[in-house]
Amino acid sequence: MTPLLDIKGLDIRAGDKPLVSDLSLSIRPGERIGLIGESGSGKSMTAMAATGLLPPSITVAGSITLDGQQVVGATDRVMNRLRGVAAAVVFQEPLTALDPLMKIGRQIAEPVRRRLERDGGKATKEAVQREVRDLIDKVALPQPDRIINSYPHEVSGGQRQRVAIAMALACRPKLLIADEPTTALDVTTQAEILKLLDQLVRETGMALLFISHDLPVVAQVVERVLVLKNGIAVEEGLVGSVFGKPQHNYTRTLVEAARLFDEALGATGS
């Protein structure tokens, strides 16, 4: 099966500083991959490179093929056609990704309208509103009328993240990139978002690239993981194998830290 995302020999640099070095990663349609490592390991840089979102000051070399299209060196026009269709991104803090001056209903409506026009459908007000309602139901947001007429700051962090997921789903992407989507949330809300993502990926057949430093979180939603350390891939394999019998010292350190953290939580009754 042809990979949906195929990264080969990726190098990302900021001036003379290497951020990601010789990274290769492929994701097939419907596959769920976890990209893990500490802050600064190059996880988000890789995701931004895959969607052409890196700033001009960052240089990229190597090959990134997204849905058959070469991303490295691609024009904005080409990338605008790919974003949302081939891949959509859910960022860590939706409050910074959402427009604070636009009501949530309008923000979800924009990608819905673009997708209807792209598919040759009629983007009538009624059709768009129907799709917006459907997306709100799909991500299990309560009180749809209130959500539609609220500004981002008027809803909770968990609800904002669900809105961001709804917007990502609006264009029906083939690949969903979730970049630390639960880090800023409390434990209960985090579990709800993970369950939602798992359900949506299963129902739609999307591929998933899930980026996180939290091993237990990653283990809940992906099948295979790639471990990054200082921008270099040090280990890759099935979740059970990598987390159960890690081969690299860095992965062992991550696994042990996650175990000790879980034990500490258990001891405090959290």
Automatic annotation (TrEMBL):
GO terms assigned for molecular function: ATP binding
Keywords assigned: ATP-binding, Cell membrane, Membrane, Nucleotide-binding, Plasmid, Transport
ABC transporter domain boundaries: 5-255
InterPro entries: AAA+_ATPase, ABC_Ni/Peptide_Import, ABC_transporter-like_ATP-bd, ABC_transporter-like_CS, P-loop_NTPase
Keyword Metal-binding: no
Keyword Protein transport: no
Localization, UniProt: Cell inner membrane
Pfam families, alphabetized: ABC_tran
Transmembrane segments: none
Record SUPFAM superfamilies: P-loop containing nucleoside triphosphate hydrolases
Membrane topology: Peripheral membrane protein
Family: Belongs to the ABC transporter superfamily.
Protein's name according to its UniProt entry: ABC transporter ATP-binding protein
Organism of provenance: Ensifer adhaerens
